[in-house]
Design a protein that fits this description.
homodimer, 128 residues, mainly beta, seven-stranded mixed sheet, 1 helix
Chain lengths: 128, 128
Amino acid sequence: MRRGHVNIRKINIESAFSRFTETFSPKIVADLNGQQVKLVRAEGDKVPWHSHEKEDEMFFVLDGILDILWREGQAELHPGEFLVIPKGTLHRVVPKGHVKLLLFEPATTQHTGTVRSEITKDKLDRLA
Amino acid sequence: MRRGHVNIRKINIESAFSRFTETFSPKIVADLNGQQVKLVRAEGDKVPWHSHEKEDEMFFVLDGILDILWREGQAELHPGEFLVIPKGTLHRVVPKGHVKLLLFEPATTQHTGTVRSEITKDKLDRLA
């Protein structure tokens, strides 16, 4: 059992999105089991081909349409759809319009993998 | 890099829910980083107080209203809201009506923790 006060509070995803407007700047909204839940806005064809050597990455579309491309295929994700890109898989994402995404991934994940690009962030903001 | 064929496909959450009707029977829809994404329907006041010694547990409400109670407080979650119950925290959930939930938790998580009850499942079905 955990001792003392436990800080537990709910996150409303729409409210959290209302707190930022930047694109390609994932915001951490929860930490659990060494993983993080992040919210991100995406717009424009800016994400380079990249891979994550150690981390599987989950893309969950909340609003808008997101194309995800990998070597052998691609998928068009609509709201309420998600996809897991396994570690070591070269991939990129192309938003159609403005897209809101929820990501589940290890706390160690760099959003552009080992590739540095104009959108690479070294330190992410926290909304919760 | 991963060798050979990579099996990547999107999951549509509404379609996945249409494939089952049982309540309190979490269905695995994705595996990533030792974690699992599960979908579950909940209805009725059936979940006993329990805790997970090693696992933080995330409850994300997709449809309906879910009360989550812990020793020091409680929260009412509506669609688009989520909450993380830290490991070691005694908690229970009370659905108001029929609730659809997404869970994100380690593959090792037992849904009623170390407590056995009428709803305890030892082996979960997989939808993907």
